[in-house]
Each structure stands twice: as structure tokens, then as C-alpha cells.
């Protein structure tokens, strides 16, 4: 029971980490752009404030450039997901995709496809989730770091559908790519170890689950303030 409780607490922490990393990956968004405050509010879990602020920004459309507009809709999608408004989240993700498709080669299409796939994952429409994650993969080089985030969504789909061996294989793909791009105490490794622990917990392999949880905790102790 205490292993399950620990895993649940870590899951909640890593949702915040995932959000922060997702927003940082929005191509072309400057740290000082108007939408950054909305991202910060979202990251702090102040979802209503984030939603209100971003909607006000969108009403003042002239203040925003194209990447900032995309970020605003991504934030609204994230807020909707936090409130379990998955249909609404999907609508925002699809809107981001449409904006990306108008912007040419510089638009973050892989991220847009990934986010739609993740929205379908939350809706438990797993076939469509996998379809959109594959669309994202098709646009990326073989060892691109972005693939690790896509593989993580795919691994979650397979965990949700009880294909635990497949889930573990995709989590291993996540680790393989991370090792080529990130330092060993990067929080993405902690997130990956935590996810692997969750799969082993589902498989009732509790010693393995505990081992990976300890790996995750070790990184968090070194990397978090």
C-alpha cells in the first residue's frame, strides 16, 4: 500500500514537471513573452487564474505573436486537462495544430501531434492516441529528444491497455534517448524511472517498482531545490 501511495504522490509531482517541459518545448516562445505568465500560473497549479489570464490575452490579440498565440491555446488545453475536461482539451490541441499547419516549416508540428495524441489518451481513445503519436514520430529524426516525450505517451497507452511488456519497452526507448541528450540527474530521468515503477507496480513486481522509485527519488533529491 505504501508503495502505491508513494507512486501516486510522485505521479502528481511529475505531472507538473511534464507540463513545464511541454511549455518549454513550444518552439519560438520567448521567456519574456506575454503568455509566459499564463504558463507560470498553470505550472503552479493556479488553473483558473491561468485560464482567465490567457483568455484576456487572446481577447487582446494584437499583443501576441504567432508562437505566443499557440502557447495560449496549449495552456488552455492543459487547464482543461487538469479539470478533466478532455473534450475541451482536445479542441484546443486541434486548434494549435491548425495554427501550426499555417506557419510552414518552423512550426512545432510534432509537438502539436503529440499533444493531440495525449488528449486522446486522456479520453481513453487509445487507437487515436497511438495514431497521432505515430504522426509525431514520422516528422522527427531517429534520435531527436522530442521522441522521448512521444514514447512516454505511447508507453502510458500500453500501460493503460494492460500491455505491460510493451509499455516497458517504450519506457526503455525513452531512457535510451534521454541518455544521449541529458545529464544523468536531469528530472526527465526521474520521471522515466517513476513511470517504469508504476508499470512494475501494476505487474505486482513490487521489489522492482521500489527500486525504480528509489532511483527517481535519488535524482529528485539532487536536482530539486
Automatic annotation (TrEMBL):
Domain of life: Eukaryota
Ranges of the TPR repeats in the UniProt entry: 110-143, 190-223
Keyword terms: Repeat, TPR repeat
Pfam family, one: TPR_10
Database matches in InterPro entries: TPR-like_helical_dom_sf (IPR011990), TPR_rpt (IPR019734)
PANTHER family for the chain: AAA+ ATPASE DOMAIN-CONTAINING PROTEIN (PTHR45641:SF1), TETRATRICOPEPTIDE REPEAT PROTEIN (AFU_ORTHOLOGUE AFUA_6G03870) (PTHR45641)
Name the record gives this protein: Tetratricopeptide repeat protein
Amino acid at each position: 500500500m505504501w508503495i502505491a501511495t508513494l507512486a501516486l504522490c510522485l505521479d502528481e509531482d511529475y505531472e507538473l514537471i511534464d507540463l513545464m517541459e511541454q511549455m518549454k518545448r513550444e518552439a519560438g516562445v520567448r521567456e519574456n513573452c506575454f503568455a509566459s505568465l499564463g504558463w507560470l500560473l498553470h505550472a503552479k497549479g493556479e488553473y483558473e487564474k491561468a485560464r482567465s489570464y490567457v483568455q484576456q490575452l487572446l481577447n487582446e490579440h494584437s499583443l501576441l505573436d504567432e508562437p505566443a498565440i499557440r502557447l495560449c491555446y496549449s495552456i488552455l488545453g492543459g487547464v482543461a486537462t487538469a479539470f478533466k475536461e478532455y473534450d475541451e482539451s482536445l479542441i484546443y490541441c486541434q486548434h494549435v495544430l491548425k495554427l501550426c499547419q499555417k506557419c510552414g516549416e518552423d512550426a512545432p508540428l510534432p509537438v502539436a501531434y503529440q499533444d493531440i495524441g495525449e488528449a486522446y489518451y486522456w479520453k481513453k481513445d487509445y487507437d487515436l492516441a497511438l495514431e497521432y503519436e505515430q504522426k509525431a514520430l514520422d516528422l522527427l529524426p531517429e534520435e531527436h529528444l522530442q521522441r522521448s516525450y512521444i514514447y512516454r505517451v505511447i508507453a502510458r497507452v500500453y500501460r493503460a491497455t494492460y500491455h505491460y511488456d510493451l509499455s516497458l519497452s517504450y519506457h526503455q526507448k525513452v531512457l535510451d534517448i534521454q541518455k544521449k541528450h541529458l545529464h544523468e540527474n536531469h528530472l526527465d530521468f526521474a520521471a522515466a524511472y517513476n513511470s517504469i515503477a508504476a508499470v512494475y507496480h501494476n505487474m505486482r513486481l513490487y521489489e522492482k517498482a521500489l527500486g525504480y522509485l528509489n532511483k527517481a527519488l535519488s535524482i529528485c533529491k539532487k536536482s530539486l531545490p
